[in-house]
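We treat protein structure as text, and this decision shapes the records that our systems exchange. Because each token names a local backbone shape, the row as a whole describes the fold. For reference, a complete record is included directly beneath this paragraph.
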Amino acid sequence: MKKSRNGKGEKRILEETIERLANRRKTPPVVFVILLLLYLILSVVVRMTSVSDSTVILGGAPVPVNTLTGVFSTVSNLCLILTVVLGGTKGFVASLVILLTSYPMLIISIFFHGNYRSIPGLFVNLLTIVAITVIFLNNKKVERYQIKLREQATTDLLTGLPNFFASTELISELIKEHKPFAAVTINISGINSINNTVGYDMGNKVFIEFASRWRQIANEGLSDTLDFISRISGDEFSLIIRHSSDKDIVNTIRLYEEALTRKITIEGYDFSLTGSFGYAVFPSDADNLDSLISYSNLAMREVKRLNNGDPVLRITPELMNTQDKLIIENKVRDALENDLIYFNLQPQFDMSHKLRGFEVLARMKDIEGNIIRPDEFIPAAERLGLISSIDLTVHKKATAFFSSLLRKTGADLTLSLNVSVKHMMKSDFMDEIKKLVRESGIPARQLEIEITESILIESAEKASRNLAELREMGIKIAIDDFGTGYSSLSYLNSFPSDILKIDKSFIDDMNTSATSQKYVEAIISLAHVMDLKVIAEGVEEEEQLETLGRINCDYIQGFIWGKPLSAEEAEALVTGSV
């Protein structure tokens, strides 16, 4: 492979990036200029006050000016000490030169002008030179320790390669500069076998040998890309590739793979290693550090799982989806453990804009306080078998609030609770609902259980028993998203229900599609024939509202009159309407 024309220069930039991130922040040059100017000004003041016989008034009493000489002298020397502390070698040299050049002027003042008041200045300067020298030498010793610690913090002790810290810092820097690159995770196979057969010392030597090959590729520009190789831990490595195309990435990975699989001979033993290379590209695959590393790890594990002879794989949308699902599932568990499940309330109105009540909507935050969308966490909770726990958590919080609201306002409103299929099919579902009614004190007639059509299909017999028992208690039944599932009017006729909710997708198309409008009108007419009320979901436009009024819809729910509200906002709405 041809040698990169810019390889060494660009690799030097990568090294400088790590150096800059690892080093402590340097003092701006302007600070040195200010300190030195202040010293020079104070030195002039010291000389003027030392020969002055005038007085100044301090605290109402006259004070000879020359008695203030020591104060100005101390402050000026402190400026030099600070210059050394903040400026290192440059600050020390500048301070030393200033102090040494002041000696001839002091000697002339004493011996040729008879100004014996300057004699203490000789000793003060000498002591200051000793002080700044001691400070400088001590700082150099500290800097040597810092360099050693910095190297240990950014370098893998066994291979001499940069370590995980150096790798992640460089990734963060490249992301900040929005430079495209690939993050490659490499897992080495064969090291454990070497350790078990000829010992860990030999395994370490093998590590050092192939790491040396990789360092040569990265440092000498042997690839067509700009590479940064580091050891993460154990038999796992990271490769950062600056590139212009996916072909560049694959070619570079193949180069590192060839260097790894090439026979290694140490002390008469021949060793062969293989590797699994998974990678993700910034910004097309992921736009943050955690996702890049996570995706490249996932791709690497998929290479090992497939074991199909191709050791290189870029993250795929399918794998990303799997990873994202796992992340959301973990957040669902965390949310339940840390009480991060909460609720919003979306108002429902009749066609005269009178408040009917609220639908309770489950909401969730993660540990960092980020809101997780319902279409992400609800399917995850269903997969984990935790949807019933979320339902119950939301129901308890919402009914406690609603009970308090009714006591404060005496409003005649309905609270609609969504129930999932799995929750309704639980053997203790009815016990939970009865306990909820009993503990909240809400009249059953002011509660509504909202189910989807799928319940009517999947578990008809059990659903029918539970629905009948709910209605006997006085709780209303609403069928959500009607028209999107597979239920028929015969199902509706067989199951006890009070409300049909028309799905938003039909409302969206109602004013642009004659078919959709006729469909909505037919649902409303048939529902009324069956003595059911109808709620139109997702109403957002005035034209939709007018059409629904004309075809005798009973209630609407949507952003046109009310977005989902917090408990406080819902209480304010009710207070203003009663």
